[in-house]
Design brief:
The chain is α/β, with parallel strands linked by helices. It has 18 helices and 14 strands.
């Protein structure tokens, strides 16, 4: 748990205090002495020499809350009325809702939105299925699908507990790319059932974003859905991570004067993200890669490779990498690496091991909330440090990728998201940081940079058209115009 006050542990504490000079100062000082960070003080009401106030306080955890409240309760002139967890309050009732685009105020409105006028639109779609993209939400809606087996750093918590994360993903789709997304959490971990469930709901959606499904099932689920559906299917844990890592790397090699094809790369963690990152590195021309899982470095002479117990994806990895069959824990095989990519867990190797990397070392330690190596401890050994956290420079975060990728794919009705489209997305993200701006602490744009999603969308749409996966020439785009490819003058029937 973090020891620094954070917005995720933000409380609103309602207090009744004596309305006398200096009392409020004593209260805020007590909170500060207890390590809390006061964000706002709002006056609710004044009554009979007392005032009711809401104090917004950031803490570092639940135990810290208790210390802060105890410090307030220790003041004779202050009474704690209530304390509200702001994070839980934000989630109350869910974080997304459906809204109507058109008013329903008259009988005429109703006759067009619903019966009898809607029947004409239904028949138009029945005659030509493509018109579903023109006259329904399909054109701009993505299903965020999970079974709750690999949620964030929480693991297998089930579909109901996964819903807040999936809702959050939908918030990001809407906020950054004007894509309407809806969470679909399935109460099954059976691969066949998941594939069939997604196939059955696909007619309502323009794209499928798979999320937080454990490896190795996630690979098979994605591949089968890509084969059976004619809309984009994208497992963000794999490909979103790979795209943003590649974007950061494109700028890191510029800054350090390297070429991708000359890099020696060490990857710790070979789940969904580790395999996908490896594939995009190989596609980009990186040849020298060593990967390690919980049993150490992978190679074709390792016991579980030879006895056949290693799973198929790791067997592929072992055959495609580490030709010298270097063996051992990550700290044993890091010698001579230019880049360390961490996709595993906290403290995966000691910071001192980084001293054996090549000069101008690059470290992308992306485990959350605690990276594979602490940035402060890594500082003496590396030139470029990136993490998955927002409180350090160079945050490698998937939100830089998936909203724009789906925006671009939906805009041109792409039937798939190809490797070339992913690389185009990575290049677009990297290009947001101009060469004159590149610094060790700025190789990747902020997740709040509003130029990112439109740039990614445009690059993905262009590549979809060039690669032949685009079915529409006219884009919806961020303006959300009501005209789609085909008739632009309303119902032609």
């Amino acid at each position: 748990m973090s020891t620094t006050p954070s917005a995720q542990y933000r409380l609103t504490i309602r207090v009744k205090i004596q309305d006398a000079p200096g009392t409020l100062g004593v209260l805020t000082a007590a909170i500060g002495d207890a390590g809390g960070m006061v964000g706002a003080v709002d006056l609710v009401e004044v009554d009979g020499g007392q005032s009711l106030r809401d104090i917004v306080v950031d803490a570092s955890g639940k135990e810290h809350w208790e210390r802060i409240i105890a410090a307030i309760e220790g003041l004779s002139e202050v009474e704690v009325i209530d304390a509200t967890d702001r994070t839980f309050l934000l989630h109350a009732g869910g974080k997304i809702e459906q809204r109507n685009k058109h008013p329903l105020k008259t009988r005429d409105d109703l006759s067009m939105v619903y019966t009898p006028g809607v029947a004409r639109v239904c028949l138009a779609i029945a005659d030509d299925g493509d018109k579903a993209f023109q006259y329904t939400i399909k054109r701009n809606t993505v299903a965020v699908v999970s079974d709750g087996t690999a949620v964030l750093g929480l693991g297998h918590i089930g579909p109901a507990a996964a819903m807040p994360v999936m809702e959050g993903k939908c918030c990001l789709f809407k906020e950054f790319a004007e894509v309407d997304a809806f969470p679909i959490c399935l109460d099954t971990t059976d691969t066949d059932e998941i594939v069939r469930a997604v196939e059955l709901i696909a007619p309502a959606f323009g794209g499928i974003n798979l999320e937080d499904i454990s490896a190795p099932r996630c690979f098979e689920i994605e591949e089968r859905l890509k084969e059976s559906l004619d809309i984009p299917v994208f497992h963000d844990d794999q490909h979103g991570t790979a795209v943003v890592v590649m974007a950061a790397l494109l700028n890191a090699v510029k800054l350090t004067g390297r070429r991708l094809q000359d890099l020696n790369v060490m990857i710790i963690g070979l789940g969904a993200a580790g395999i996908a990152v490896t594939k995009i590195l190989l596609t980009a021309g990186v040849h020298q890669i060593i990967g390690a899982d919980s049993r150490g470095a992978l190679h074709v002479r390792r016991e579980d490779y030879l006895d056949g117990s290693m799973n198929l994806l790791k067997r592929w990895f072992a055959a495609a990498t580490n030709p010298e069959c270097r063996d051992g824990a990550p700290a044993d095989v890091i010698d001579g690496a230019d880049l360390l990519i961490g996709l595993s867990g906290a403290r995966a190797l000691p910071a001192s091991a980084l001293s054996r990397m090549n000069g101008d070392a690059m470290v992308f330690a992306m485990a959350n909330p605690n990276p594979e190596v602490n940035p402060e401890e890594a500082a003496p050994y590396v030139r470029i440090m990136a993490t998955g956290r927002s409180d350090y420079p160079n945050q490698i975060n998937n939100v830089l990728c998936f909203p724009g990728i789906f925006r671009g794919a939906l805009d041109v009705r792409a039937t798939a998201i190809t490797e070339d489209m992913k690389m185009a997305a990575a290049q677009a993200i990297a290009a947001i940081v101009e060469e004159r701006e590149l610094r060790e602490d700025y190789i990747i744009p902020s997740v709040f940079n509003r130029d990112v999603a439109p740039a990614v969308a445009a690059a993905v749409a262009d590549q979809a058209r060039a690669g032949g996966t685009a079915l529409a020439g006219q884009e919806i785009g961020f303006a959300h115009g009501d005209t789609m490819t085909g008739s632009s003058s309303g119902d032609p029937y």
